[in-house]
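User: Mind token order:
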Amino acid sequence: QIKLAESGGGSVQAGGSLNLWCVASGFPSNSGVYWMGWFRQAPGKEREMIAAIEPNGHVTTYATPVKGRFTISKDATNIFNNTILLQMNNLKPEDTGVYYCAATQDYHSFLQKDPPYWGQGTQVTVSA
């Protein structure tokens, strides 16, 4: 059973930085076939995809609001290739929300906001 566990997050003032980690477990031996990414849900808003990374870690995509401020990457020190990092810089109050790690073999499910595997979420709060 595939499980995703997020860590990091917390509270920070605008302009600050935070890092989020997601560790996946239960992948089949060939874990290099899963896209992994981050979604967030702000209060009163729909969940949105903000960043994704392709299985080999060479291709990344970002939502427009976070481009140039957020960086998604795979933990190169992890031999199982199952840990991703979201580095968030120059945070803004509108970045506040619950951040969810997600995984899928089909990138289109990310675009449809319906990947099969989700973490429990971690809160990020940015104060003005």
User: Anything to note?
Assistant: The longest strand covers residues 18-25. Helices lie at 107-111. The two ends are 40 Å apart (CA to CA).
